[in-house]
Write a structure and sequence with these properties.
By secondary structure, the chain is mainly alpha-helical. The chain has a single domain, classed as Methane Monooxygenase Hydroxylase, Chain G, domain 1, CATH 1.20.58. It is built from four helices and two strands; from the N terminus they run ααααββ. Strands 1-2 form a two-stranded antiparallel ribbon. The chain starts with a helix and ends in a 12-residue tail after the last strand.
Length: about 160
């Protein structure tokens, strides 16, 4: 098994993780700034980066199975297990370093994703509250049937 080739491929995957992290951060900044006209574009870029990462991940999974097989490990062995069983200390150290780097990036992605979801939930709640004040909110009953809020005149004080 070519462990240097595996490390090289893990670097490619790490770059894809960094790209996804960057796109999620862009999306977060757009949400914070309230520049919602760019949100669709940012979300499309996040989805594109995630799809690219999925494709890369499939190839990595194949490489990991091959490495596990060559080391006599179960085919579903983790990168950690493969790194620990690597035939040379240099390969072991490189694989462990890549694993740590990828884990840190994944933690950043997870944190940013949670922040984005929280910002989106707050935005949705604010929108629903504003619509409720205007009497135009839609609610749903237990069967899923939509019910429009009562139509009533709304008074908006322009001096506020």
């Amino acid at each position: 098994m070519d462990f240097d080739g595996m490390v090289t491929y893990l670097i490619v995957e790490q770059q894809a993780l960094e790209e996804l992290s960057f796109k999620l951060e862009e999306e977060r900044l757009i949400l914070i700034a309230g520049r919602h006209r760019f949100l669709d574009r940012a979300t499309a870029e996040v989805e594109f980066a995630a799809a690219a990462l999925t494709a890369i991940g499939q190839t990595r999974a194949t490489l990991l199975r091959e490495a596990a097989d060559s080391l006599g490990l179960p085919l579903d062995a983790s990168l950690r297990q493969i790194a620990e069983a690597a035939p040379t200390s240099a390969a072991r150290l490189r694989l462990q370093a890549m694993r740590q780097t990828m884990r840190k990036t994944m933690e950043t992605i997870s944190d940013t994703t949670a922040q984005n979801r929280q910002l989106l939930a707050r935005g949705l709640a604010a929108t629903m509250d504003a619509l409720a004040l205007l009497g135009t909110s839609t609610s749903y009953d237990a069967s899923g049937t939509a019910h429009r809020g009562t139509d009533r005149p709304a008074l908006i004080d322009a001096r506020v």
